[in-house]
Automatic annotation (TrEMBL):
Signal peptide: 1-18
Spans traversing the lipid bilayer: none
SUPFAM superfamilies in the record: Aromatic compound dioxygenase
GO terms for MF: dioxygenase activity
InterPro entries, per the entry: Intradiol_dOase_C, Intradiol_dOase_core
Domain Intradiol ring-cleavage dioxygenases positions: 91-151
Keywords in alphabetical order: Dioxygenase, Oxidoreductase, Signal
Name used for this protein in its record: Intradiol ring-cleavage dioxygenase
């Protein structure tokens, strides 16, 4: 039943879900994490400052400071235990800083800061693992699954009984493509950057980017992950107004086969927002003016390194 409810949550609206995530946080645990996050607020603000004002750091993209007049202190994602979804596929997630692979779309440089919630200090050398769908809703490695077919219908078409479906166990992959999947470790400031394109959407889900954070990780020769402790599983979202602007552009605009689900309508979004924290990525235009020409996104992930997740994911069990 546990896994059944996850599948339902992906396929249907929020009204029918009892448990949206792969892991069930008790109310007490949510409160504990929220308190950890509040404790870190001032430190979070400090790291934002350092990230954007320190000219001695060498990031791919140099940006100007003004952006930080609007940044929120409370950008930690503190309820990471939302579902990783059915499209996790570690075999195609490789170590790289540009996961675009010629997929068309608005360029996005995603900057992620990882903070240890126990100490409010940046976490160095943890692997940030990202994957999302392309501008018209398809995931690499799953390109034969239609982004416009409801999940339950997809399972039916594949001849998989819903009762037999388990997130992270049932393998739905259709090919070996790797676009829009990548991982990169954090530096000494707890920062990493991934170049990608702004995601599109697929049926019944708001626009989102999946993220996991792994500690104690090791890689295969081809750069895919062999093992690691997953200490965070979350989904990142964008501001609705921004999404409307980007979705009006090609190639996003040509995806008319299904309606876009907004954050407000999404079944998983509310659980990423638990505890008053925001899973929304802050963005600034790369050219300082026009986000449709490309943008830099920033978010801080608050991670509890002792909360090692098991079950529910491939990592460590492959
Ligand atoms: C945000 O950070 C600034 C600068 O450190 C601090 O003055 C302010 O109190 C913080 N706000 C909250 C809500 O914690
Ligand atoms: C990497 O190697 C593993 C193990 O041989 C394999 O399963 C996976 O498909 C490979 N991935 C890529 C992207 O080459
Ligand atoms: C997204 O990926 C699918 C599957 O590979 C492909 O058919 C589609 O053209 C891609 N979308 C865009 C905008 O390139
Ligand atoms: C880290 O990984 C190694 C080997 O993969 C394992 O022996 C060790 O117990 C792990 N350490 C922790 C803290 O999980
Ligand atoms: C989204 O962006 C608009 C325009 O910048 C802003 O008015 C609105 O408050 C933002 N919404 C959220 C949830 O941050």
């Amino acid at each position: 039943m546990h896994h059944f409810s996850i599948a339902i949550s992906l396929a249907l609206g929020a009204s029918v879900i009892a448990h949206p995530g792969g892991h069930h946080l008790s109310a007490r645990e949510v409160v504990r994490r929220s308190e950890l996050g509040l404790k870190c607020r001032d430190k979070v603000a400090h790291y934002h400052e350092r990230r954007w004002h320190d000219d001695t750091t060498s990031y791919q993209i140099q940006t100007k400071a003004p952006y930080f007049e609007t940044i929120q202190n409370d950008t930690c994602v503190l309820t990471p235990e939302v579902t990783q979804g059915p499209y996790v596929y570690p075999q195609s997630q490789t170590l790289r800083q540009d996961m675009t692979e010629n997929q068309p779309g608005v360029p996005l440089w995603l900057d992620i800061g990882v903070l240890d919630m126990a100490t409010c200090e940046p976490l160095e050398d943890v692997l940030v693992d990202l994957w999302h769908c392309n501008a018209t809703g398809s995931y690499s490695s799953f390109t034969d699954l239609s982004p416009d077919t409801a999940f339950l219908t997809l399972l039916e078409e594949l001849g998989i009984d819903i009762d037999d479906f388990e997130i992270g166990v049932t393998d739905l992959h259709t090919d070996d493509s790797t676009f829009l999947r990548g991982m990169w470790p954090t530096d000494k400031n707890g920062m990493m950057e991934m170049k990608t394109v702004f995601p599109g959407f697929y049926i019944d889900r708001a626009i989102h980017i999946h993220v996991q954070v792994h500690t104690n990780w090791t890689l295969r020769e081809n750069g895919t992950i062999v093992a690691g402790n997953t200490v965070s599983t979350g989904q990142l979202y964008f501001n609705e107004t921004l999404e409307e602007r980007i979705m009006a552009l090609e190639p996003y605009a040509s995806h008319t086969q299904t309606d876009r689900t907004t954050n407000a309508e999404d079944s998983v979004f509310p659980y990423d927002s638990t505890g008053g924290f925001s899973p929304l990525v802050d963005v600034i235009p790369v050219d300082g003016e026009d986000v449709t020409k490309g943008m830099i996104g920033y978010i801080t992930l608050g991670v509890d390194t002792t909360a090692i997740e098991d079950g529910d994911n491939y990592v460590g069990t492959l």
